[in-house]
Amino acid sequence: MLRRREGKFRVELIIGLVLFSWAFGINLWLAGRGFMPMDQSVVFDGGWRTICGQIPFRDYTGMTGLVPSLLQALFFQLLGVTWFAYCFHASVFNGLFCVMAYGLLRGFKVERGVAIAGGFLSGLAFYPPSGTPYMEQHAFFFLLAAAFLLVAGGRAKSIAARRLLWAAAPYCMLLAFLSKQNAACITAPAVLLAGLCVARGAEERKELATWLAAGTALCLITVAAALILFGMSPDKIWTDMFQQSIDTGRVRLTS
User: Fold this and answer.
1) How far apart are CA 48 and CA 66, in angstroms?
2) Is the CB of residue 166 less than 8 Å from the CB of residue 212?
């Protein structure tokens, strides 16, 4: 029995490595073909400002792209402030998205061959159209991660593991919101539905709601601590991330 489980783990590991390599490589190959100055410069500029020591919502502001910018600062720190570091960032996330898409399909007990095809196509359709770090793609990445955690929690045999995975899901949803607000808000109901689909019975759904609430509370505490620690302006956060987005949406709906 143990050997059989080890054999399945090896198979899944090999599939994951192959899918990651495919998605990473295809994006890195296509990333440099074209450039949209107004959109593709947002995360680059945010990463550069961060690596220079500027704090978001204190020293600089932006309506979207906070999390991708902070992550880009890490890639700049590791690889230097280069176009390659920019493309490398997106390629890593394309690879991880591909693997998570496969894992999520397997979590819903989709046949392995179909799940591999889904993961393969995800790696082609997710980041290659833009090539470089982008707000919407990172938001969808973290939303998929939240769905993956909810489904993995529903399939977990350990009660502790299930609760930990469910409590971690709101953090992914927070990261999605801090990447691009509208993408996170529109897709969040589908993510929650994924968790409900794997919860077995009313008691487990109640447990899911409890640990999602606990994770959400921890998220709010984390945000409050970050505001205090880094001296971020709540007014700037409200204006940039909420008020400007609401005003933009209102104009588009009424025009």
Assistant:
1) 12
2) yes
Q: Which H/E stretch holds residue 79?
A: helix 66-79
Identify residue 53 by its one-letter amino acid code.
Answer: G
Terminal Cα-to-Cα distance of the chain (whole angstroms): 64
SS3 60: strand
- Is residue 130 within 8 Å of residue 65, measured between CB atoms? no
**Is residue 64 within 8 Å of 182, Cβ to Cβ?**
no
Distances (CA, A) of 120 to 13, 141, 146, 165: 15, 15, 20, 25
Report which DSSP code applies to 55: -
Q: Which SS3 state, helix, strand or coil, does residue 33 take? A: coil
Residue type (1 letter), 89: H
CA max distance for the chain: 64
Residues 28 and 91 sit within 8 Å (Cβ to Cβ) = yes
Q: How far apart are CA 177 and CA 174, in angstroms?
A: 5
Per-residue pLDDT of the chain (255 residues), as tens digits, is: 556 666 677 888 999 999 999 999 999 998 877 677 667 788 999 999 999 999 888 888 777 889 999 999 999 999 999 999 999 999 999 999 999 999 999 988 899 999 999 999 999 999 998 889 999 999 999 999 999 999 888 888 888 998 999 999 999 999 999 999 888 888 888 888 888 887 778 888 889 889 999 999 999 999 999 989 988 888 888 888 788 777 777 777 776
Give yes or no for a contact between 110 and 12, defined as CB atoms under 8 angstroms apart. Answer: no
Q: What token pair was written down for 21? A: 């390599």
